[in-house]
Amino acid sequence: MGDDLHELLAAALAAGEVQSAVWLVARRDVVLSQGAVGAAQPDTLYDLASLTKPLVTALLCAYFMERGDLSASHRLSDYLPTPEPNSIYNLATIREALLHTAGFPAWLPLYALCDHPAEAPAVIGRIRPRRKAGAARVVYSDLGYIALGYILEHLGGRPLDVLFDEVVAQPLGLEATCFRPPAAWRNRIAPTENGNAHERAMTRRLAAEDGNQWLSASEQVRLLRYDGYRQGPIHGEVHDGNAFFLGGVAGHAGLFSTAKEVWQLAREFLPGGRLLKPATLASCTGNLTPDANESRSFGWMLATTPGATGAGLSPAAFGHTGFTGTSLWCDPQTECVYVLLTNRTFPIRASLQEVRRAFHARAARLVR
Predict the structure, then answer these.
(1) Which residue ranges form the domains of the chain, and what is each CATH number?
(2) Of 66, 74, 196, 218, which shows the fewest CB atoms inside 10 Å?
(3) What percent of the chain has pLDDT over 70?
(4) Are 295 and 287 in contact (CB under 8 A)?
(5) Which tens digit of pLDDT belongs to each residue from 66-76?
(6) Strands (E), the chain
(7) Per-residue pLDDT tens over the stretch 23-66
């Protein structure tokens, strides 16, 4: 079956859908299949992109909830300065931010709206949701997790990367999982894009949008004039523009890791994990948005969501993807973890939806 997975990913490589790929499928403590294709080795580090959300931010939120330092019902304004009475910080809760039901827009280029990273919390806080926070609709958003990252730093009294290293990475013995990997590791890291063409196009579309509900006219002009995009290959530094602007460390993106250590992190959300209590795991793996357009837990999408890429797994499975081409799914029924790391955005962006579906369908046969 390992040959079957190799064949699938080698075909994706030949088709130009990925420049490299590393996979690992494991059940409990046993690796069932692992390998690499293209310009990668099994220990190649990848920019995990939005896998940062569950593996760092949701995990640390659950940790502070267990300690009694954080409550899912707390308002964001309990920890973040609120620039306006009707701002989203005053209206949204920790729970809603974790579930993507707080009313944040999907994305805004903070690097084009702020002169300095220190301005970002206030810029996010000025957002006024156009619908009631907590309404039965999921709008996947980076901004809510960026805000949660600031809250974690407030609770922990230290930067998010230091907090993650002390609370998670060191206790688990992780050696290659971090924000801002050292320059000496560059040859072990998969590149992600040639320049920022994708975000440049996103910003221009946002700036040109008639009747934009999130931006003022002056802010739209600012976006049109912005030209601070990176040039050349993005390699060894975070791909996401907002995370890069914020110093490479943010609640929504910035973590780098290997397939093996992603597996080690994922095991913390399955029975027998060392960092969270069984009762806490229910919030991280159970459906907390039963009436919404997506099935969500704290940090994760559930396999019952229409179109989820965990095809072939049980309905109890949960997972996440990252824009750069990363994917992680966990199945508590079989206690299996499915890791697929690629760099689909290098040199150009490709869609991996069908590749991911086929990967999970084939990999699930290993445990039948």
Answers:
(1) 2-54+250-367 (3.40.710.10), 67-169 (no CATH), 191-208+215-245 (no CATH)
(2) 218
(3) 98
(4) yes
(5) 999 999 999 99
(6) 20-27, 30-38, 46-47, 178-179, 193-194, 233-234, 255-257, 301-302, 318-322, 326-331, 336-342
(7) 999 999 999 999 999 999 999 999 999 999 999 999 999 999 99
